[in-house]
Design a protein that fits this description.
286 residues, alpha/beta, Rossmann fold, N-(1-d-carboxylethyl)-l-norvaline Dehydrogenase, domain 2, 2 domains, 6-stranded parallel beta sheet, 15 helices, globular
């Protein structure tokens, strides 16, 4: 199978490495070509232009930063002119559901299939091929591409086109608010003279336990804020959550608080730090 992959960043690169373990031919493209070159040693074919990447592919996967980056690729004249009929485009970026629906409709007119399949699990999940993959689109197309999706993680069909992105926003509501809750719990523990690491151990297996408590909590305790999921990405997701909520007349008070805190971090220039850096912003309130 001929597969094209666009986006070789923090998430894209390890996902490509997992695809390269198969017998499929994997061609890659990245706007900054130097970031893609390192993957040649693993067996990837480097495309220097979008038209090179798109031609004669059965599947094209995109893993990009935001709605604008996705649209600049999928809706470009070059992409639409060169993509083959009956190719499946799988967008694994995180975008608004409305963006996914528009891209589904645009590609359908060209006879091209589309799945929105955003992921959760961060760089660790990408490396270990254990990502939670939330898929929206036509069920028959989902089933047709299931084997490839399983090379990247654990796919689950959510529903009609744009459903995957809607599920991802629900995921990010939980992620953002939980990072805030873990931040407060660690600060609270410290203020009461406890060792936070002992608190993490004590809570393991209880109702308050979670991956975020154990992984992000440890990052906060160690003050290890090397990006696995960026402040900028979490802020983008929180904005998408609130924009989508507004379009559907839904009030999300906790999401608004978390969005505003991430906005403060962004304004202070912390976009490229791990999203667990929210801990530092919340610490300012104590």
């Amino acid at each position: 199978m001929n597969i094209g992959f666009i986006g070789t960043g923090l998430m894209g690169a390890p996902m490509i490495k997992n695809l390269l373990k198969s017998k499929h031919q994997i061609s890659i493209f990245n706007r900054t070509i130097s970031k893609a070159r390192k993957l040649k040693r693993y067996g990837a074919y480097l495309s220097y232009k979008i038209d090179e990447l798109v031609k004669d592919k059965e599947i094209i996967i995109t893993m990009l930063t935001d709605d604008k980056a996705v649209n600049n690729i999928i809706r470009s004249k070059t992409f639409l002119k060169n993509v083959c009929k009956e190719t499946t485009v799988i967008d694994m970026s995180s975008t608004k559901p409305s963006t996914a629906l528009d891209n589904y409709k645009t590609l359908k007119k060209k006879g091209v299939y589309f799945l929105d399949a955003p992921v959760s699990g961060g760089t660790k999940g990408a490396e270990s091929a254990s990502l939670a993959i939330m898929v929206g689109g036509e069920k028959k197309i989902y089933k047709k591409n299931l084997k490839v999706l399983k090379m990247l993680g654990i796919p689950n069909y959510v529903g009609k086109p744009s459903s995957g992105q809607a599920a991802k926003l629900a995921n990010q509501i939980i992620v953002g608010i939980t990072i805030g809750a873990v931040s407060e719990a660690i600060i609270f523990s410290k203020k009461l003279g406890l060792k936070p690491i002992n608190v993490l151990k004590a809570l393991k297996g209880g109702w308050a336990d979670s991956k975020i408590l154990q992984t992000h909590g440890l990052r906060m305790i160690k003050e290890d804020f090397k990006a696995r999921g960026k402040v900028a990405s979490q802020l983008k997701d929180m904005e998408n959550i609130l924009n989508t909520a507004k379009m559907n007349k839904i009030n999300l008070p906790l999401s608004m608080i978390i969005r505003n805190l991430y906005k403060k971090l962004s304004k202070k220039g912390y976009d490229n730090l791990d999203h667990s850096y929210l801990y530092k912003e919340i610490k300012n309130y104590f």
